[in-house]
Q: What sequence folds into this?
């Protein structure tokens, strides 16, 4: 089992960049596929992006794939979500999640979650 803690969320203006971090502990980080999801007020949680346990494969939601990038640093047990050209519609609580030696873009497949970090993009 793995514990996850997100950080880096804050209030930014449209067009700004921001990088979120998710620090993992409790198990071997390299065994986990890491996903990023977000939830805006009144909306369902949605997939943002995912990176495979080895870091060699990534996938993104269509709404972010030209603007967001996921990376991972095994030495720091941390996964990152770099967000560029932020829009007001990116406002949400962002969550990272872990999936053991598997691959999915579905939030229901991820057993372990962080507490979330708020990103607010003002126009």
A:
């Amino acid at each position: 089992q793995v514990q996850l803690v997100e950080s880096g969320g804050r209030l930014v203006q449209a067009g700004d960049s921001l990088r979120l971090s998710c620090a993992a502990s409790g198990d071997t980080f390299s065994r986990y596929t890491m996903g990023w999801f977000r939830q805006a007020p009144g909306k369902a949680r949605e997939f943002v992006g995912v990176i495979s346990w080895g870091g060699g494969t990534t996938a993104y939601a269509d709404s972010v794939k030209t603007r967001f990038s996921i990376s991972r640093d095994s030495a720091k047990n941390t996964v990152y979500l770099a967000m560029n050209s932020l829009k007001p519609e990116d406002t949400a609580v962002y969550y990272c999640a872990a999936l053991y030696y598997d691959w999915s873009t579905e939030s229901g497949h991820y057993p372990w979650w962080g507490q979330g970090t708020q990103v607010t993009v003002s126009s």
Notes: The first strand starts at residue 3 and ends at 7. The CA atoms of residues 8 and 20 lie 5 Å apart.
